[in-house]
């Protein structure tokens, strides 16, 4: 198992490395840190190609600084790939390395709550063939050693079983509690102006069934709990369940996603706007 950090020499890059270290240590796996450079930055050096030489050397320097912050107990390697498309280069490098997930920093253009996504991050979150972990702004400053708890947003749409599979396997590997959450948000059904008792009962019944399945599959190896939150919006509902440092949330791809691809659905996007914990987006058909 390998975690691949798509690195930039920015605050978002520092956040991504910090999350990558946390996940790699928790999952007891290797960490790879890579940068994507444009083709002209990797061209053979000839007299007059001084700019290319400087860019290539700068990438090596940035990667050196990045891995210098990785603790000695986490095995780390560095990689540079040439691609005229940063997002395509990141996906290709992750696939070459056999990475199970790509970590990115959220800081960039386009405000999205604590996760301020830039254009490359947006491309990845809608097209990656491997799982994507998004680090909130300022995550490196928390210096969290390991994952504390995994939260999985359970639902009834296609892909829910695959998401649960990944969440159960991850909680077992990291030996951390698994929390299942089911959200009842009135903004998903505009005609409702108050809490719908039937919808709440259905959410609770479904969550309890998923809880029983998770407990049976984990056989008591880690604690499993469930929470059903009701709110006027997805953002309000997801805040009600409570979040602490060291939590991460797992969500599935939209039903619109192609097989083995990500596509962030509207509900997950609303969560991302409000939460300040890392989000893991699982591809359709799992990681």
Automatic annotation (TrEMBL):
Taxonomic lineage from the root: Bacteria, Bacillati, Actinomycetota, Actinomycetes, Mycobacteriales
Judging by the UniProt lineage, the source's domain of life is Bacteria
**Family named by the database record:** Belongs to the universal stress protein A family.
From the Swiss-Prot or TrEMBL record, give the protein name: Universal stress protein
Q: Which residues form a coiled coil?
A: none
Alphabetized InterPro entries for the sequence: Rossmann-like_a/b/a_fold (IPR014729), UspA (IPR006016)
Q: Which organism is it from?
A: Tsukamurella strandjordii
Give every UspA domain span.
2-135, 147-283
């Amino acid at each position: 198992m390998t975690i691949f950090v798509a690195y930039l020499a920015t605050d978002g890059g520092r956040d991504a490395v910090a999350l990558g270290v946390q996940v790699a240590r928790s999952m007891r796996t290797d960490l790879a840190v890579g940068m994507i450079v444009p083709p002209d930055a990797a061209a053979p050096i000839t007299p007059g190609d001084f700019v290319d030489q400087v860019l290539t050397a700068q990438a090596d320097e940035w990667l050196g600084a990045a891995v210098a912050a990785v603790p000695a107990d986490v095995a780390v390697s560095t990689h540079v790939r040439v691609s005229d498309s940063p997002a395509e280069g990141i996906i290709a490098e992750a696939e070459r390395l056999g990475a199970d997930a790509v970590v990115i920093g959220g800081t960039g253009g386009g405000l999205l709550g604590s996760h301020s996504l830039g254009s490359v991050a947006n491309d990845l979150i809608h097209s990656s063939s491997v799982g994507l972990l998004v680090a909130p702004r300022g995550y490196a400053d928390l210096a969290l050693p390991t994952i504390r708890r995994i939260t999985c947003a359970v639902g009834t749409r296609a892909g829910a079983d695959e998401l649960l599979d990944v969440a159960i396997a991850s909680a077992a590997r990291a030996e951390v509690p698994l929390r299942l959450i089911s959200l009842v948000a009135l903004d998903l059904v505009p005609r409702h102006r108050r809490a719908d008792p039937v919808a709440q009962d259905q959410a609770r019944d479904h969550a309890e069934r998923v809880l029983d399945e998770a407990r049976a599959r984990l056989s008591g190896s880690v604690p499993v709990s469930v929470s059903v939150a009701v709110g006027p919006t997805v953002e309000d509902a997801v805040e009600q369940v409570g979040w602490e440092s060291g939590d991460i949330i797992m969500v599935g791809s939209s039903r619109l996603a192609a097989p083995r691809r990500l596509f962030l659905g509207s509900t997950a996007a609303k969560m991302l706007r409000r939460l300040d914990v890392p989000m893991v987006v699982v591809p359709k058909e799992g990681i």
